Amino acid sequence: MEDITITLTTKPSASLRASVFSAHSPSTSRNLSDVLVVFLNGLVLSRRAWSPAISHLLSSFSDNNQHPPTIFTYDRYGQGDSDHDPADDPNSIPYSHDAHDIVFDLHQLLTQFTSSSPHLPNLESARLVFVCNSIGCPLARLYAHAHADQTQISAYLFLDSMIANTDFVSIFPDPDDAGFDPGSLPKGVSPQELRYTRSQFRKFFHPTVPNPEHFDRRKLAEMLPFSDRPSLPLIGAPGDEKPSEKAPLLTVVGHDWDEFAEQCEKGTMAVPKQVINTFMNPTWSRYNDGLLRLVHSPGNSNTVKVASGCGHFIQKDDPEFVAKEIKHLLDNL
Fold it and tell me: One Pfam match, by short name (predicted)?
């Protein structure tokens, strides 16, 4: 992977940092020369967190005497090695640019990158594969609809998508609500634990919580109120005036319930495992089931895959698993 700096023509006073593996020749078994694999980060981990998975992916191509497609990772404005967004209003910080702004910048970034690459067609003709973790998954969904007429997203890998339509606090019952029935709680969960859990999730995950990117998440639930709609755009051959009836590939991966609950209990939040397994994990599972319905095609899996032994950051906990899932999608292209 080569580290590069890209300055958007739309924002010439700041730069984005990216890492690229450039495909120099078509695959010996399948032609992936027009494919661009784009990695979309969550809020916590930068582009560097994808490096182990990408290393495994490149090794799998080498072991099979195949040439990989072009691979692209980047840090959003205010994240990792990238500069802060020059369009951020100092008077509005920590709430500045939102998901729509990020999607706009991503499109400009990919347009410039593909136009300058000697090994890729222009963005409209390239086949995009989005590999996403956490909030990167709703960003991919928003991008797909904002630029459906200008891009072809042939495949998606959602790794423990953020639950975009919640404030996270309301996932857990409020023990101070007038209608709350303590007798409804399962064994091992107390009102005191619920109260503490709600306070911790409000502190760490509520949409009003600031982040180093100045990414304003307060209206994300309005942008994507449902996990199962709108459906991801269909794709067609380059130059088609109307997309053919061909659905993109989609793989949805969820975390290991027990590992995630263990990490919540032993990590900074110190939230009891039983509370996570009673309320958070089932809610997340239902959300993932909805994501599967974003694509209606017999060629896609109808079950959510579970990354055994992984918490929320699947690319960190099991990079080899992530590489295998990417390779599977690319083979199916």
Answer: Abhydrolase_6
- The identity of residue 274, as a single letter, is Q
What amino acid is encoded at 267 in this protein? G
Top pLDDT among 86 and 118 is at 86
Write the DSSP symbol of residue 248: P
128: which 2 tokens?
A: 């995009």
The 8 Å CB, 24+ separation contacts for 279-284 are 279/171, 279/172, 279/173, 280/171, 280/172, 281/257, 283/163, 283/166, 283/171, 284/160, 284/163, 284/254, 284/255
89, containing H or E segment: none
Which tokens sit at 214? 């100045």
* Exposed e or buried b per residue across 7-41, where buried means at least 16 C-beta atoms within 10 angstroms of its C-beta: ebeebeebbbbbbbbebeeebeeeebbbbbbbbbb
Please, what is the Cα angle at 49 between 60 and 143, to 5 degrees? 90
CB-side neighbour CA atoms (13 Å) of 170? 7
* Contact status, residue 256 vs residue 285, Cβ threshold 8 Å: no
Q: At what angle do helices 281-292 and 257-266 cross, to 10 degrees?
A: 140
The predicted-structure confidence for 215-271, as pLDDT tens digits, reads as follows 999 999 999 999 999 999 999 755 455 545 699 999 999 999 999 999 999 999 999
Strands 35-40 and 2-6: unpaired
Alpha-carbon separation of residue 160 from 18, 61, 142, 293 (angstroms): 23, 25, 17, 16
At residue 27, the pLDDT reads 46
pLDDT tens sequence across 47-89: 999 999 999 999 999 999 999 999 999 999 999 999 999 999 9
Q: What is the DSSP letter of 246?
A: B
Residue partners of 15: CB distance under 8 A and separation at least 6: 5, 6, 7, 82, 83
The HSE-up count of residue 157 (CA atoms within 13 Å, CB side) is: 27
